[in-house]
Amino acid sequence: MAALNGKVAVITGGNAGIGLTLAERLLTLDPTLTLCLACRNMMKAEAARQALLTSHPGSRVECVRLDTSDVQSVYAAAQKIQEEYPRVDYLYLNAGTMGKVSVDAAAILKALVSPRAPEIFRTGEKLLSQKDETTKDGLQEIFATNVFGHFVLIRELEDVLCQPDHTSQVIWTSSQNATRKAFDLEDFQHSQGHEGYSSSKYATDVLSAALNERYRGRGLFSHTACPGLVVTNLTKGILPFWLWWLMLPLLWAMRALVPSMTISPHNGTEVLVWLSQQVPSSLDPLCKYTSRCKVWGTAYVDREKLDIDLPTAEQFYQKLLQLENHFREKYREVRSKIRGQ
After folding, report:
1. What CA–CA distances, in Å, run from 134 to 99, 139, 145, 196?
2. How does it sit in the membrane (predicted)?
């Protein structure tokens, strides 16, 4: 375990888009920061690492393989992180998937003439259909990637996140697409629906509140952040590339009514960077902090009250604990071997 001169930040999905831009901005703010990119594709992670070292020579940037859709991968990554770092100050839970997304063209045309158009385009309500798949662990892929894998990671990293007389932050990349109506506590993996991404992002909002209730007494605070509508590799797959470019002027113009049209990863990461600069105990765990953008492009941070209740959050937490215990039992020998290496 190497000695540390500054703070430690772990970013899941840190090799591109929001994650990579966040890494660049954090290193610019704090050159002493130790940065760990936890990514599924190690070739892309290494390329991102080299790019960061080129732009920030002398920085400490490392990579660990993490596929949040694979429980065994989460166990292995958590063990490597604990072996390498005596503590983690910032855990950015940014890795995610939307599944196979299709756009409902008829719904878009209908939304354009709806009096609720700003709200519909802000949240993407009913505009997208997300086709899910099943992982090798038997979980819904969107749920496993966006929610459960990160939950297991937090649980496995308790020792480095909860240090005596020390404060750490868990910061979730949420979405305006997170809606309560898409989430069902009795089908929290959303195996019976077609809005898996919306359900998973609402689930992270709920889980964040539950985690804050559980861990704040031990110095660990959890908050959710929304980058707004950002054109990244995740969103580019929704529409043909040429159509995104045709739509950009419209998206910029819509900022007057929908300031969540942040568009660029730099604007989108405004809230993620801002949260790292705040006193965690001063933040409201029942609010989602959001990146916003003025018409002329200046980014700023806003917040909105989460549509959640703590009893539901606690019930969801307990259901995830039961699922986690199932996998701890299932992979008991695997975890023992990983920890014994």
Report:
1. 11, 5, 11, 12
2. Single-pass membrane protein
| Parts of the chain with a pLDDT under 50 | 234, 236
pTM of this prediction exceeds 0.90: no
Which residue out of 75, 85, 197, 202 is catalytically annotated? Answer: 197
Block residue for tokens 């991102």: 48
Question: Is 197 part of the annotated catalytic residue set?
Answer: yes
Categorise residue 114: left if φ over 0, alpha if ψ from -120 to 50, beta otherwise. Answer: beta
| Contact partners, residue 189, CB within 8 Å, separation at least 6 | 139, 140, 143
Q: How many CA atoms lie within 13 A of 238 on its CB side?
A: 19
Kindly report, residue by residue over 62-86, the tens digit of the pLDDT. 999 999 999 999 999 999 999 999 9
User: Angle of helix 310-330 relative to helix 332-340, nearest 10 degrees?
Assistant: 80
8-98+140-340 maps to which CATH number?
3.40.50.720
Task: Please state the separation of Cα 200 from the chain's center in Å.
Answer: 10
β strands within the chain, DSSP E:
8-12, 34-39, 60-65, 90-93, 100-103, 128-131, 168-173, 220-226, 287-293, 299-305
